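Fold this sequence, please.
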Amino acid sequence: MAPGDLQEVLAVLRSPSRAVPAELLVGLGMADDAAVYRVAPDLAIVATVDFFPPVVDDAYTWGAVAAANAMSDVYAMGGQVLFALAVAGFPRDFPKALIAEVFRGGAEKVAEAGGVVAGGHTVVDAEPKYGLCVTGRVHPDRILVKGGLRPGDRLFLSKPLGTGVVTTAAKDGAADAATLEGAVVSMLRLNRVAADVACETGARGATDITGFGFLGHASEMLVASGTGMVVSAARLPVLPGALALAQAGHFSGGMKRNRRYLTELWGPRLEIAAGIAEPLAALLFEAETSGGLLFSVAPDRAPDVVSGFERRGETCAEIGGVLAEPRIRIAS
Protein backbone atom coordinates (compact mmCIF):
# COMPACT_ATOMS: atom_id res chain seq x y z
CA MET A 1 0.00 0.00 0.00
CA ALA A 2 1.29 3.47 -0.86
CA PRO A 3 2.50 5.64 2.07
CA GLY A 4 -0.31 8.18 1.76
CA ASP A 5 -3.02 5.52 1.48
CA LEU A 6 -1.67 3.72 4.54
CA GLN A 7 -1.73 6.87 6.67
CA GLU A 8 -5.31 7.52 5.60
CA VAL A 9 -6.65 4.10 6.63
CA LEU A 10 -4.69 4.11 9.90
CA ALA A 11 -6.20 7.42 10.97
CA VAL A 12 -9.18 5.63 12.52
CA LEU A 13 -6.82 3.79 14.90
CA ARG A 14 -5.19 7.04 16.04
CA SER A 15 -8.32 8.59 17.52
CA PRO A 16 -7.62 10.66 20.67
CA SER A 17 -10.46 8.78 22.36
CA ARG A 18 -8.57 5.50 22.19
CA ALA A 19 -6.75 4.79 25.45
CA VAL A 20 -3.07 3.88 25.08
CA PRO A 21 -1.35 2.14 28.02
CA ALA A 22 1.80 3.75 29.35
CA GLU A 23 3.63 0.48 28.76
CA LEU A 24 3.20 0.86 24.98
CA LEU A 25 6.41 2.76 24.29
CA VAL A 26 6.10 2.72 20.48
CA GLY A 27 2.79 2.22 18.71
CA LEU A 28 0.61 3.95 16.15
CA GLY A 29 1.14 7.44 17.56
CA MET A 30 4.10 8.03 15.25
CA ALA A 31 4.95 5.73 12.35
CA ASP A 32 7.78 3.37 13.24
CA ASP A 33 9.11 -0.05 12.26
CA ALA A 34 7.71 -2.15 15.12
CA ALA A 35 5.63 -1.92 18.28
CA VAL A 36 7.48 -1.82 21.61
CA TYR A 37 5.81 -2.75 24.92
CA ARG A 38 7.56 -2.46 28.29
CA VAL A 39 7.11 -5.55 30.51
CA ALA A 40 9.74 -4.66 33.15
CA PRO A 41 11.92 -1.66 33.99
CA ASP A 42 14.80 -3.17 32.02
CA LEU A 43 12.89 -5.15 29.40
CA ALA A 44 10.59 -4.33 26.51
CA ILE A 45 9.09 -6.60 23.86
CA VAL A 46 9.44 -5.68 20.18
CA ALA A 47 6.74 -7.05 17.85
CA THR A 48 6.32 -6.81 14.08
CA VAL A 49 4.80 -8.65 11.13
CA ASP A 50 5.71 -8.73 7.44
CA PHE A 51 4.86 -11.04 4.52
CA PHE A 52 4.79 -10.89 0.73
CA PRO A 53 4.54 -12.96 -2.49
CA PRO A 54 7.64 -14.64 -3.97
CA VAL A 55 10.46 -12.29 -5.00
CA VAL A 56 12.63 -15.11 -6.40
CA ASP A 57 11.87 -18.47 -8.01
CA ASP A 58 13.63 -20.70 -5.48
CA ALA A 59 11.25 -21.62 -2.62
CA TYR A 60 13.92 -21.92 0.08
CA THR A 61 15.47 -18.57 -0.85
CA TRP A 62 12.08 -16.85 -0.88
CA GLY A 63 11.41 -18.10 2.65
CA ALA A 64 14.83 -16.96 3.86
CA VAL A 65 14.54 -13.52 2.26
CA ALA A 66 11.04 -13.02 3.68
CA ALA A 67 12.33 -13.94 7.13
CA ALA A 68 15.31 -11.59 6.91
CA ASN A 69 12.98 -8.82 5.77
CA ALA A 70 10.56 -9.37 8.66
CA MET A 71 13.29 -9.53 11.31
CA SER A 72 14.80 -6.32 9.99
CA ASP A 73 12.07 -4.33 11.76
CA VAL A 74 13.26 -5.67 15.11
CA TYR A 75 16.83 -4.66 14.29
CA ALA A 76 15.62 -1.22 13.23
CA MET A 77 14.38 -0.73 16.79
CA GLY A 78 17.74 -1.80 18.23
CA GLY A 79 16.32 -5.15 19.36
CA GLN A 80 17.32 -8.80 19.35
CA VAL A 81 15.17 -11.53 17.80
CA LEU A 82 13.63 -14.08 20.19
CA PHE A 83 11.09 -16.10 18.18
CA ALA A 84 8.71 -15.87 15.24
CA LEU A 85 5.37 -17.20 14.05
CA ALA A 86 4.98 -17.96 10.36
CA VAL A 87 2.14 -16.39 8.35
CA ALA A 88 1.45 -18.03 5.00
CA GLY A 89 -1.09 -18.48 2.24
CA PHE A 90 -0.83 -20.93 -0.67
CA PRO A 91 -3.10 -22.15 -3.49
CA ARG A 92 -4.80 -25.44 -2.66
CA ASP A 93 -2.79 -27.28 -5.31
CA PHE A 94 0.59 -25.73 -4.42
CA PRO A 95 3.17 -28.56 -4.10
CA LYS A 96 3.68 -29.51 -0.45
CA ALA A 97 7.38 -30.07 -1.04
CA LEU A 98 7.77 -26.43 -2.11
CA ILE A 99 5.80 -25.18 0.91
CA ALA A 100 8.13 -27.17 3.13
CA GLU A 101 11.14 -25.52 1.46
CA VAL A 102 9.67 -22.05 2.05
CA PHE A 103 9.18 -22.88 5.72
CA ARG A 104 12.67 -24.38 5.97
CA GLY A 105 14.27 -21.29 4.45
CA GLY A 106 12.46 -19.03 6.90
CA ALA A 107 13.21 -21.20 9.91
CA GLU A 108 16.92 -21.47 9.13
CA LYS A 109 17.23 -17.69 8.66
CA VAL A 110 15.53 -17.13 12.03
CA ALA A 111 17.94 -19.64 13.59
CA GLU A 112 20.83 -17.64 12.10
CA ALA A 113 19.45 -14.63 13.97
CA GLY A 114 19.50 -16.58 17.23
CA GLY A 115 15.76 -17.15 17.32
CA VAL A 116 13.30 -19.93 16.53
CA VAL A 117 10.08 -20.33 14.54
CA ALA A 118 7.65 -21.45 17.22
CA GLY A 119 4.43 -21.83 15.24
CA GLY A 120 2.25 -19.98 12.75
CA HIS A 121 -0.90 -19.89 10.67
CA THR A 122 -1.66 -20.79 7.06
CA VAL A 123 -4.65 -20.19 4.79
CA VAL A 124 -5.63 -21.13 1.26
CA ASP A 125 -4.91 -18.18 -1.04
CA ALA A 126 -4.86 -17.71 -4.80
CA GLU A 127 -1.42 -16.08 -4.63
CA PRO A 128 1.41 -17.57 -2.52
CA LYS A 129 2.44 -15.40 0.42
CA TYR A 130 4.85 -15.99 3.30
CA GLY A 131 6.29 -14.02 6.17
CA LEU A 132 6.70 -13.82 9.92
CA CYS A 133 5.30 -12.27 13.05
CA VAL A 134 8.54 -11.59 14.93
CA THR A 135 9.00 -11.02 18.65
CA GLY A 136 12.20 -9.52 19.99
CA ARG A 137 13.57 -7.81 23.06
CA VAL A 138 15.17 -4.43 23.75
CA HIS A 139 16.09 -2.36 26.80
CA PRO A 140 13.47 0.42 27.20
CA ASP A 141 16.22 3.03 27.42
CA ARG A 142 17.98 1.87 24.25
CA ILE A 143 15.22 1.84 21.66
CA LEU A 144 16.08 3.18 18.22
CA VAL A 145 13.21 5.19 16.71
CA LYS A 146 12.58 7.03 13.47
CA GLY A 147 12.29 10.28 15.40
CA GLY A 148 15.81 10.08 16.82
CA LEU A 149 17.66 12.16 14.22
CA ARG A 150 19.51 15.25 15.45
CA PRO A 151 20.93 18.12 13.35
CA GLY A 152 24.60 17.53 12.67
CA ASP A 153 24.35 13.73 12.89
CA ARG A 154 26.05 11.67 10.20
CA LEU A 155 23.91 9.24 8.17
CA PHE A 156 24.88 5.65 7.36
CA LEU A 157 23.30 3.00 5.11
CA SER A 158 24.20 -0.63 5.75
CA LYS A 159 23.20 -2.21 2.40
CA PRO A 160 23.18 -1.14 -1.25
CA LEU A 161 20.03 -0.04 -3.06
CA GLY A 162 18.59 -1.85 -6.06
CA THR A 163 16.88 -5.06 -4.89
CA GLY A 164 13.50 -3.85 -6.16
CA VAL A 165 14.76 -3.08 -9.65
CA VAL A 166 16.70 -6.34 -9.88
CA THR A 167 13.85 -8.59 -8.71
CA THR A 168 11.38 -6.78 -10.97
CA ALA A 169 13.74 -7.26 -13.92
CA ALA A 170 14.18 -10.92 -12.99
CA LYS A 171 10.42 -11.43 -13.23
CA ASP A 172 10.64 -9.94 -16.73
CA GLY A 173 13.54 -12.26 -17.63
CA ALA A 174 15.86 -9.25 -17.98
CA ALA A 175 18.29 -9.75 -15.07
CA ASP A 176 21.37 -11.90 -15.67
CA ALA A 177 22.33 -14.57 -13.15
CA ALA A 178 25.20 -12.62 -11.60
CA THR A 179 23.09 -9.50 -11.04
CA LEU A 180 20.26 -11.49 -9.48
CA GLU A 181 22.67 -13.42 -7.27
CA GLY A 182 24.13 -10.16 -5.99
CA ALA A 183 20.66 -8.96 -5.02
CA VAL A 184 19.85 -12.28 -3.33
CA VAL A 185 23.05 -12.18 -1.27
CA SER A 186 22.16 -8.66 -0.13
CA MET A 187 18.56 -9.56 0.73
CA LEU A 188 19.71 -12.58 2.74
CA ARG A 189 22.14 -10.56 4.87
CA LEU A 190 20.65 -9.83 8.26
CA ASN A 191 20.71 -6.33 9.68
CA ARG A 192 21.95 -7.80 12.95
CA VAL A 193 25.45 -6.37 12.58
CA ALA A 194 24.05 -2.99 11.57
CA ALA A 195 21.85 -2.90 14.68
CA ASP A 196 24.74 -3.91 16.93
CA VAL A 197 27.03 -1.23 15.51
CA ALA A 198 24.32 1.42 15.59
CA CYS A 199 23.60 0.72 19.25
CA GLU A 200 27.23 0.56 20.36
CA THR A 201 28.04 3.87 18.65
CA GLY A 202 25.15 5.73 20.29
CA ALA A 203 22.73 5.88 17.35
CA ARG A 204 19.44 7.55 18.21
CA GLY A 205 17.49 7.29 14.97
CA ALA A 206 17.12 4.29 12.66
CA THR A 207 14.83 2.62 10.14
CA ASP A 208 15.09 -0.14 7.58
CA ILE A 209 14.67 0.47 3.86
CA THR A 210 11.85 -1.63 2.41
CA GLY A 211 8.62 -1.01 0.51
CA PHE A 212 8.53 2.81 0.63
CA GLY A 213 12.03 3.02 -0.84
CA PHE A 214 15.05 4.93 0.42
CA LEU A 215 13.43 8.36 0.28
CA GLY A 216 10.10 7.10 1.61
CA HIS A 217 11.58 5.66 4.78
CA ALA A 218 14.06 8.52 5.16
CA SER A 219 11.11 10.91 4.88
CA GLU A 220 9.36 9.19 7.79
CA MET A 221 12.48 9.73 9.90
CA LEU A 222 12.65 13.41 8.97
CA VAL A 223 8.97 14.05 9.70
CA ALA A 224 9.23 12.25 13.05
CA SER A 225 12.41 14.13 13.97
CA GLY A 226 11.46 17.54 12.60
CA THR A 227 14.73 17.61 10.65
CA GLY A 228 16.07 17.44 7.11
CA MET A 229 18.94 15.68 5.39
CA VAL A 230 21.56 16.10 2.73
CA VAL A 231 22.74 12.98 0.91
CA SER A 232 25.61 12.62 -1.53
CA ALA A 233 24.39 10.62 -4.51
CA ALA A 234 27.99 9.61 -5.25
CA ARG A 235 28.23 7.94 -1.84
CA LEU A 236 25.04 5.90 -2.14
CA PRO A 237 25.84 2.18 -2.50
CA VAL A 238 24.04 0.53 -5.43
CA LEU A 239 23.97 -3.14 -6.38
CA PRO A 240 26.00 -4.12 -9.47
CA GLY A 241 23.77 -4.05 -12.53
CA ALA A 242 20.93 -2.16 -10.83
CA LEU A 243 21.51 1.15 -12.58
CA ALA A 244 21.54 -0.49 -16.01
CA LEU A 245 18.22 -2.17 -15.22
CA ALA A 246 16.86 1.14 -13.93
CA GLN A 247 17.97 2.78 -17.18
CA ALA A 248 15.97 0.12 -19.02
CA GLY A 249 12.89 0.97 -16.95
CA HIS A 250 12.52 -2.14 -14.80
CA PHE A 251 10.77 -0.43 -11.91
CA SER A 252 7.97 -1.82 -9.79
CA GLY A 253 4.62 -0.08 -9.50
CA GLY A 254 5.67 1.00 -6.02
CA MET A 255 8.29 3.39 -7.38
CA LYS A 256 5.74 5.63 -9.11
CA ARG A 257 3.42 5.62 -6.09
CA ASN A 258 6.27 6.46 -3.72
CA ARG A 259 7.56 9.23 -5.99
CA ARG A 260 4.15 10.80 -6.44
CA TYR A 261 3.44 10.80 -2.71
CA LEU A 262 6.82 12.22 -1.68
CA THR A 263 6.80 14.88 -4.38
CA GLU A 264 3.42 16.07 -3.14
CA LEU A 265 4.48 15.87 0.52
CA TRP A 266 7.76 17.79 0.24
CA GLY A 267 7.20 19.94 -2.84
CA PRO A 268 10.12 22.32 -3.42
CA ARG A 269 11.74 21.12 -0.19
CA LEU A 270 12.73 17.94 -2.06
CA GLU A 271 15.77 18.91 -4.12
CA ILE A 272 17.55 16.48 -6.45
CA ALA A 273 20.62 18.03 -8.06
CA ALA A 274 20.33 18.56 -11.82
CA GLY A 275 23.47 16.55 -12.49
CA ILE A 276 22.07 13.33 -11.04
CA ALA A 277 21.05 10.88 -13.76
CA GLU A 278 17.36 9.98 -13.88
CA PRO A 279 17.91 6.21 -13.30
CA LEU A 280 19.64 6.91 -9.98
CA ALA A 281 17.08 9.54 -9.01
CA ALA A 282 14.24 7.09 -9.66
CA LEU A 283 16.07 4.37 -7.74
CA LEU A 284 15.79 6.49 -4.60
CA PHE A 285 12.00 6.06 -4.72
CA GLU A 286 11.96 2.37 -5.67
CA ALA A 287 10.65 -0.24 -3.23
CA GLU A 288 13.34 -2.41 -1.68
CA THR A 289 13.15 -5.89 -0.19
CA SER A 290 15.21 -6.66 2.93
CA GLY A 291 17.15 -3.43 2.49
CA GLY A 292 19.70 -1.97 4.86
CA LEU A 293 19.42 0.06 8.03
CA LEU A 294 19.54 3.84 7.69
CA PHE A 295 20.76 5.32 10.96
CA SER A 296 22.48 8.39 12.36
CA VAL A 297 25.22 8.96 14.91
CA ALA A 298 26.93 12.02 16.35
CA PRO A 299 29.81 13.22 14.13
CA ASP A 300 32.52 12.13 16.55
CA ARG A 301 31.21 8.54 16.47
CA ALA A 302 31.26 8.21 12.67
CA PRO A 303 34.75 6.61 12.58
CA ASP A 304 33.55 4.06 15.15
CA VAL A 305 30.71 3.03 12.84
CA VAL A 306 33.14 2.27 10.03
CA SER A 307 35.51 0.32 12.28
CA GLY A 308 32.61 -1.53 13.89
CA PHE A 309 31.46 -2.87 10.55
CA GLU A 310 35.01 -3.68 9.48
CA ARG A 311 35.64 -5.73 12.64
CA ARG A 312 32.58 -7.82 11.82
CA GLY A 313 33.52 -8.31 8.17
CA GLU A 314 30.76 -6.16 6.72
CA THR A 315 30.61 -2.83 4.93
CA CYS A 316 28.47 0.26 5.24
CA ALA A 317 28.37 3.68 3.60
CA GLU A 318 28.43 7.13 5.16
CA ILE A 319 26.03 8.91 2.84
CA GLY A 320 25.36 12.34 4.30
CA GLY A 321 24.13 14.29 7.30
CA VAL A 322 21.11 15.57 9.18
CA LEU A 323 19.98 19.17 8.69
CA ALA A 324 18.11 21.42 11.08
CA GLU A 325 15.85 22.68 8.29
CA PRO A 326 13.10 20.21 7.22
CA ARG A 327 14.10 19.50 3.63
CA ILE A 328 15.65 16.72 1.55
CA ARG A 329 18.64 17.58 -0.60
CA ILE A 330 20.24 14.98 -2.85
CA ALA A 331 23.58 16.42 -3.90
CA SER A 332 25.76 15.08 -6.72
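The chain has a mean pLDDT of 95. The chain has two domains: 3-142, 146-331.
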